[in-house]
Amino acid sequence: MTEPGRLFILSAPSGAGKTTLRKFLCEAMPSLSYSVSFTTRKPRPGEVEGRDYRFITREEFEKGIESGRFAEWAQVHGNLYGTSADFIRRELERGASVVLDIDVVGAKKLTAAFPDAVTIFVRPPSMEALRERLTGRGTDAPSVVARRLENAEW
After folding, report:
1. For all residues of the chain together, what is the average pLDDT?
2. What is the pTM (predicted TM-score) of this model?
3. Pick from 6, 10, 29, 34: which is nearest to 122 by CA?
């Protein structure tokens, strides 16, 4: 019998560096499986379907909620984000370790469903550094950046 894999959950406010850290981990440890999150938001420049996110419609997402497709899901900044329950279970059962990069609310939901998960919180160096990162992206309206900063303070 194969020993089950481990679930690693990286969580942080938007812009704190969790995606950069996750990419580094996956490059350093090629056997680590990355669970690509589903979202209803539009792709940012340079993002690739299936690599960065699985971009789906709000209708598809809502059907997934009803069918239990997601181990966790949340509405964040007006968009829906979720993690595939089937992917996590399948990978852990085959003995693979899985890494996720999700928001703090999603991390709390996942630890309830997977109590043996290892959680890692990535803290930005300061709120000013976070503000600079978010505005430097150039992908969000000032109102969205302000909302992300408010959520990060929480």
Report:
1. 88
2. 0.77
3. 10
